[in-house]
Amino acid sequence: MGEKRRGRLVVISGPSGTGKTSICDGLLKRIPNSRWSVSVTTRPRRGHEVDGQHYCFVTCERFEHMLANDELLEHAEYLGHRYGTPRAPVEQAVERGDIVILEIDVQGGAQIAQRVPDSIRVFVLPPTMETLQARLGGRQTESDALQCKRLAEADGEIGFAKSSGHYPYFITNDILNNSVERVLEIIRQETGQG
Ligand code: 5GP
C-alpha cells in the first residue's frame, strides 16, 4: 500500500517508413505519465529536427566516450551511423514511475530484451512492402540511394524481429489511430493500468 509503482520501458521498432514515429507521438499524447527517450546519434540532423528534442546530435568521439563510460543503455549502428539510448534519463524516469518510449532499431531492441526483460517490445510492420516503398519515396529529405538502402534494411529487420523472439508483439500499421489503440491496449494489459 502506498508503494510507488515503477515505470516501464516501451520499445517500438520497425523498418524506417512504417510510421513508428507517428505511433510514438500518439502514445505520448494519450499516456499522461509517458516520456520520449531522446537518443544520441552521429548521423547528420535532418532539416526539421531539433537538437535535444528529436535526437542529441553528437560527434563520433562523444559517442565513443559515452559508450566507454557505460552511459548508454543500448546502442547500434544503422546505415553507417551510430545510435544509442542515454541510460540516466531512462532510469530516472522509470524510478519516477513513468512509461518511457524508446523508438529504436532491432539491434537495440535485442539488447533491451536482455537487459530489461520486463520491457514491452512491439514491432511495427508495414501493410505491404509496396506501401513501405511509397512512404520512403515520399521523404523529400533523402536521396534515392539512401531510400534504397533503407528498403533493403527493412527485409533484414523484419526477418530478425520474427526469428529472434525478442518481440512478443507485432502490429501492422494500416490506420494510424488503430495502431495507437492497439499499442495502448498492449501497455494496459502489461501494466494492469488504465
Ligand atoms: P533515423 O536515422 O531514420 O532517425 O533512424 C534510423 C533507425 O535508427 C530507426 O530504425 C530508429 O528507430 C533507430 N534508432 C533511433 N534511435 C536509436 C537508438 O537510440 N538506438 C537504436 N538501437 N536505434 C535507434
Question: Summary?
Answer:
The protein has 194 residues and is an alpha/beta fold.
What would your notes on this structure say?
This protein has 194 residues and is of the alpha/beta class. It is built from seven helices and nine strands, in the order E-H-E-E-E-H-E-E-H-E-H-E-H-H-E-H. The chain has helices spanning 20-30, 60-68, 87-96, 106-115, 129-137, 144-164, 176-191, and strands spanning 8-13, 34-36, 39-41, 55-57, 72-78, 81-86, 99-103, 120-125, 169-172. The strands form two sheets. Strands 2-7-1-8-9 form a five-stranded parallel β-sheet, with helices on both faces. Strands 4-3-6-5 form a four-stranded mixed β-sheet. Strand 5 and strand 6 (81-86) form a beta hairpin. Guanosine-5'-monophosphate (5GP) is lined by residues 16, 39, 43, 74, 76, 78, 83-85, 103-105, 107-108.
Quantity of strands, as a count: 9
Query: How much helicity do the residues have?
Result: 40-55%
Oligomer: single chain
Radius of gyration: 16 Å
Question: What's the level 1 CATH class?
Answer: Alpha Beta
Shape call: globular
Judging by the overall fold, what is the CATH architecture? 3-Layer(aba) Sandwich
The chain-level structural class is alpha/beta
Q: SSE order in H/E notation?
A: EHEEEHEEHEHEHHEH
Count of discrete alpha- or pi-helical segments spanning 4 or more residues: 7
> Which fold name corresponds to the CATH topology?
Rossmann fold
Tell me about the largest β-sheet. Answer: 5 strands, parallel
Mean pLDDT: 93
Ligands present: guanosine-5'-monophosphate
CATH fourth-tier homologous superfamily: P-loop containing nucleotide triphosphate hydrolases
